[in-house]
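Hello, quick one for you while I still have it in my head. A protein chain has come my way and I'm curious about its shape. Can you walk me through what the tokens say about the fold? No rush at all, and the record is pasted right below.
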Amino acid sequence: MRFSGLRVITEALRGNKSWTPHWRNPEPKAHYDAIVIGGGGHGLATAFYLAENHGLRNVAVLEKGYLGSGNIGRNTTIVRANYGLPGNSEFYSHSLKLWEGMEGALNYNVMHSQRGIINLFHSDGQRDAYARRGNAMINQGDDAFLLDREGVRKILPYLDFDNTRFPIYGGLYHPRGGTARHDAVAWGYARGADKRGVDLIQNCEVTGIDVDNGKVVGVQTTRGAIRAPKVGIVVAGRSSQVAAMAGMRLPIESHILQAFVTEGLKPVIDHVVTFGAGHFYISQSDKGGLVFGGDLDYYASYAQRGNLPIAEHVIEAGMTLMPMIGKAKLLRSWGGIMDMSPDGSPIIDKTHIDGLYLNCGWCYGGFKAVPASGWCMAHLMATDTPHEVARGYRLDRFATGRGLMDEEGTGSQHNLH
């Protein structure tokens, strides 16, 4: 089923009674050419590109719940390519290009809105750091503009520019950044993968990984054993638990990151805005809710919820930046399980077990990385070689110390990233 404006109008007039399911609900087969563990954005994108780019269609995605029940539906929907370090900058630049062509490739509206991102700075030192980052972005081929105080005021007049502690000096403007509808991204990739023959198997929890003489041969699940010569672990905050089934101990800590949304309001925030003096970011959804978040909860957990002290901390930062949001009522909050790596950058690599592949360590960058992550993971699983834009995302860099990517300059401590 293809989408078109005429089809949408026709279905609306007919009471939306003729839509068909977007993907099948198959029973698992006994054998596949490849298995992707994890039915989130990264896992679904991996399966889609395995079929689309490499012709591997006898593929299964195994999801213990329903598709999109993890972090892909529990984030603040920001899309950007404003990284400064080699190894990261080319990867996220590639990802942004895929975002820009995603709706055409999937024939699905993911509500990608390039409304622009403005990262505020509040000191001379921050200005210098953002100038360097902006130049790195331009050298990579992406867009960046350094705004002074009045330049920011013209775009964001509602901010508190004269806050005594954190006056706004200016901002780094990334016009091609923006947001997308997180659920729709999962649905679009799921629909595209299913259309290309991939089996999307929900309510199928992996309980074991079968290894024979150093080679993966399949997995054990709550719906029986499934054999495959290639298995990809793409489960975000659950990476350590799933990898342990194969006897692996990963350099990953799982922490909670909360997000919040207010009641629906009239359009007031046209961009994505980040607070440079604290970890706070905000945008407005198509439904009118203000979507925002901040720091991790700073304790290891697998619970998809947060605690009140961090909620207070995030809201304090929001009030410091734009006191007007104090009049909005908070509608709901949720938590995502973040797979935090020691250097704040991801892992897309083969493991020491032949046929077992790993995709994790996305920290705060998971949503915006979805298309490039799937693209590169599919390339790795299909060819056994890393994609050129993901060559730095090696697992062994944490054992050797070579090639660490400390994008934020905060050291090798998981929860500081």
User: Anything to note?
Assistant: The longest helix spans residues 89-106. The radius of gyration is 21 Å. The chain has ten helices and 19 strands.
